[in-house]
Design brief:
single chain; 578 residues; disordered C terminus; 3 domains; 23 helices; Rossmann fold; Alpha-Beta Plaits; alpha/beta
């Protein structure tokens, strides 16, 4: 409050107003007093000027005081300290008045110059304290920028102004690319210093009318009003990206960073602040997916894609609950003898409306919504159970192979899941094999190696799937407790005619022999490919030429028929065998 106070007195009783007026004259305060006799008059006065303090009678002829107080704040953005006046010595009413946001209350019987002076001074101090707290709640402590709490109010006002000016507001959401690497390698103190420098640069390089907001972490939003068209928004975003591409001067080094940005335009993409932020977030995700260090505008196709993704995730959750998944089994065959050695379990989603859905169409979504661990655990248990059921039906014990996703490898319960599946099913020792991709190994080779070692101790063998498509080195291969290399179908499909694929396949087989590993080729589709692999010393094969993946119910009859003719199956085309 200022030294010269503007005070509003609202009371319908002439005597009560006279009492307050005389007490104010005796208080020694420097003030201007405005009077109103009802709530409507109080609101008119608040519309005309800003007050430092309001003495507000609780019982007014038109509305109760707490309703008028709420209108003063909502309609006229009043920042006045409100002291309620009441003729009732009622503690519950006093608590209600204080709960509405007042800083104090007085009973009219106790009003005097001294009491009013003390009440106004107390109200001034308390009101200023609360204003400071409110302001602190709106500021990000690290950067000094406005924080997420002010985003909606600032954007709402900007959109309203844009409507009057017939232009647009650009909401730009941005973050630093690979910021996590800074925290991981240089420490969080260096990361915090980088964010401070980033906020200073955004504030300095932006327009005066822009509002830079730190939403959290390394994510910032810029609300840019008075944008005339998309080209103007493009120039604005590129200026931001260029500014953050300049090196940041640390204490003893320069940091070269890049940022990605997503842009939503109001009113084109909507006028709701929450929805606009979502639109900008979708555009930011697209920018990062396209290579980082760039910006992308929101378009409705993104929203459609997000809605489709959400619908798919919702259907997947129901699929888990309703047990809509089914396993197909593809045999793995010894190339030299033709003997069936085992199967690979391949999941299908038997969706009621769309039929059988292959894994490539839903596994990425399952990984994204964190259902893959639950689905993978079911695959593990069902594979073990099914193989034991076949054994009990008279089929000799076979190796059963399942694929583990990178998410499952990071699950702390994976070992317990394997132990539980083996114990519950009664599967023979040495019959379970897990397949992991080459790229998953490189994610964290030390922890993956430890995990694989624990699985090997349980008699579980390990196969590297899609070998040759990643970037693992011989050093990695030597470090890992691996039993089998699986040649990717992309190398097998052009055998034996493609010299490059033939050389890679031969080298992989030779490499496996050198390390004492078995080698299996997937995607075998004709006799020439099978003959080439046999000549090169490959151990096993699987593919449509030998058998397509099949439901569990079909496997026993296929197996018995195949056993009676397996020599012919290896020596001549056998697509009819399944």
């Amino acid at each position: 409050m200022t030294d010269h106070l503007k005070i509003l007195l609202v009371d319908d009783d002439d005597v009560d107003r006279l009492t307050v007026r005389r007490a104010m004259e005796q208080s020694g305060l420097n003030y201007d007093l405005t009077e109103a006799v009802d709530g409507a008059g109080a609101l008119v006065a608040c519309a005309a000027q800003k007050f430092d303090c309001v003495f507000l009678d609780y019982r007014l002829p038109d509305y109760d005081g707490d309703i008028i107080f709420a209108e003063m704040v909502a309609e006229h953005d009043s920042q006045a300290a409100v002291i309620f006046l009441t003729g009732e010595n009622d503690e519950k009413l006093a608590q209600k008045m204080m709960g509405s946001g007042a800083v104090d209350y007085l009973t009219k019987a106790e009003i005097s110059g001294t009491v009013l002076r003390r009440a106004v001074q107390y109200a001034s101090a308390r009101h200023n304290f609360h204003k400071q707290l409110a302001e602190m709640a709106r500021i990000d402590v690290l950067t000094g920028l406005p924080n997420r709490s002010v985003f909606e109010s600032v954007l709402t006002k900007a959109i309203a102004q844009a409507g009057r000016a017939q232009n647009m507001v650009a909401v730009t959401l941005l973050d630093l690319d690979n910021f996590k690497d800074v925290n991981d390698t240089l420490g969080h103190a260096a990361g915090d210093q980088l964010l401070k420098m980033m906020s200073e640069r955004l504030s300095a390089r932006g327009r005066v009318t822009d509002t830079v907001i730190r939403l959290g972490g390394d994510e910032f939003a810029i609300i840019a009003p008075n944008i005339n068209d998309a080209q103007g928004a493009s120039r604005h975003a590129q200026k931001i990206i260029d500014a953050l591409a300049e090196p940041f001067e640390g204490e003893d080094q320069k940091l070269f960073m890049s940022c990605s940005a997503g842009i939503a335009l109001a009113p084109m993409d909507g006028t709701d602040p929450t929805q606009l932020l979502k639109c900008a977030d979708m555009a930011l995700y697209r920018a990062k997916a396209e290579g980082r260090g760039r910006f992308h505008f929101f378009d409705e196709k993104m929203n459609t894609a997000v809605q489709d993704q959400r619908a798919l995730e919702s259907d997947l959750r129901q699929a888990v609950a309703k047990n809509e998944f089914e396993l197909f089994y593809q045999p793995k065959v010894d190339i030299r003898t033709g003997q069936v050695l085992g199967t690979e379990s391949l999941i299908r989603w038997n969706q009621p409306e769309r039929g059988l859905i292959p894994p490539n169409d839903f596994i990425p979504a399952a990984e994204k919504c964190h259902l893959i661990v639950e689905i993978g655990d079911w695959v593990l248990r069902e594979t073990c159970r099914q193989h034991v059921a076949w054994r009990d039906a008279g089929i000799p014990p076979l190796n059963c192979s399942i694929n583990l996703s990178p998410h499952q490898l990071k699950d702390t319960q994976i070992i317990a899941s394997v132990d539980r599946a083996l114990k519950q099913s009664g599967l023979e020792d040495g019959c379970l094999e897990i397949e992991i991709t080459e790229s998953a190994i490189l994610d964290n080779i030390k922890s993956i190696s430890e995990l694989l070692g624990m699985l090997r101790m349980r008699g579980v063998s390990v196969s590297i799937d899609d070998f040759g498509t990643g970037y693992s080195s011989l050093t990695h291969l030597k470090q890992l407790p691996v039993d089998t290399l699986k040649i990717d179908r992309s190398f097998v499909s052009n055998l034996p005619g493609d010299e490059g694929d033939a050389a890679i396949t031969s080298a992989t087989i030779s490499l496996g022999k050198t390390f004492g590993l078995k080698v299996i080729a997937e995607g075998v589709e004709d006799q020439e490919q099978l003959d080439f692999l046999r000549r090169e010393g490959c151990d096993q094969a699987q593919g449509y030429y030998l058998s397509r993946p099949m439901p569990a119910a079909e496997f026993p009859s296929w197996y018995r028929e195949y056993q009676t003719r397996r020599i012919a199956t290896i020596g001549a085309p056998a697509a009819q065998a399944g």
